[in-house]
Amino acid sequence: MNTINIGLSKTEIQEVVKLLNQNLADFYLLQIKTKKYHWDVVGPQFLTLHEIWQGQYEIISDNIDNCAERIRALGEYPIGTAQLFLENTTLKEHPSDLPDSTEMVQRLVIDHEHIIRNLRKHIDLCSQKFHDEGTADFLTGIMEQHEEMAWMLRSFIGGKNIEQRIREDRELITES
Q1: Is 137 left (phi over 0), alpha (psi -120 to 50) or beta?
Q2: Would 3 be classed as within a structural domain?
Q3: Spatial CA neighbour of 52 closest among 116, 141, 112, 120
Q4: Pick from 104, 165, 101: which is nearest to 112 by CA?
Q5: Is residue 93 classed as helix, strand or coil in its secondary structure?
Q6: Is there a smaller number of Cβ atoms within 10 Å at the N or the C end of the chain?
Q7: How many domains does the chain have?
Q8: How far, in Å, are 12, 17, 43, 92, 132 from residue 106 at the CA level?
Q9: Does a structural domain hold residue 96?
Q10: For the domain that residue 87 is a member of, what is the CATH number?
Q11: Among candidate residues 135, 16, 5, 127, the one with its CA nearest the CA of residue 66
Q12: Measured between alpha carbons, how far is residue 81 from residues 16, 24, 46, 72 in Å?
């Protein structure tokens, strides 16, 4: 491939691609987990969660493709094997268990929030350290999508969390 001349050094591009490949691995594992829960959810929330997760894994699938294409636009090649995804992901698998629907939702919220935190760091690095505002902007859009997906899932189980937070707030006020 011809040398790319877009105002970034080879080192800057390589560092950005490392971040993008980590994101790609995280997105891939999250898609697998979301799809698995989409298939396996049971109970009164089946239809609602089944539909929510279908919409979410479609968004995640688009992000996987877009992330790989961003890497290609930078003149590099994305990782693309299960082994490399597992080696590069920062998410945790939960093999050999089948949680109830509430635990499924909670696990996915944790994963989305983990990805959001990573994306914030990667956005800062891309913009401030590697001077790649294009990738920073690209990642910002993906981060916003994960913020919305996490919000939707938190809202699904929010009643329990809200009641607990109200109790904790009251305890803090009483102690003050």
Answers
A1: alpha
A2: no
A3: 112
A4: 104
A5: coil
A6: C
A7: 1
A8: 36, 30, 16, 13, 34
A9: yes
A10: 1.20.1260.10
A11: 135
A12: 20, 11, 32, 16
Domain that holds residue 164: 10-175
> pLDDT tens across 43-84, in order?
898 999 999 999 999 999 999 999 999 999 999 999 999 999
CA 143 to chain centre: 8
Q: With respect to residue 4, please indicate whether it lies within any of the assigned structural domains.
A: no
pLDDT tens-digit readout, 1-44: 567 889 999 999 999 999 999 999 999 999 999 999 999 999 89
Distances (CA, A) of 164 to 83, 136, 147, 150: 40, 36, 22, 19
Distance CA 133, CA 174 (A): 47
Q: 28: which residues sit within 8 A by CB, 6+ positions away?
A: 64, 85, 89
User: What CA–CA distance (Å, rounded) separates 129 from 65?
Assistant: 25
- Please report how the helices 133-156 and 101-124 are oriented relative to each other, as an axis angle in degrees rounded to 10: 160
Spatial CA neighbour of 53 closest among 154, 126, 149? 149
Cα 91 to chain centroid distance, Å, stands at 9
Q: Give ∠ CA 140-145-147 in degrees, rounded to 5.
A: 90
Distance, in Å, from the CA atom of 130 to the CA atom of 8, rounded to the nearest integer, reads 8
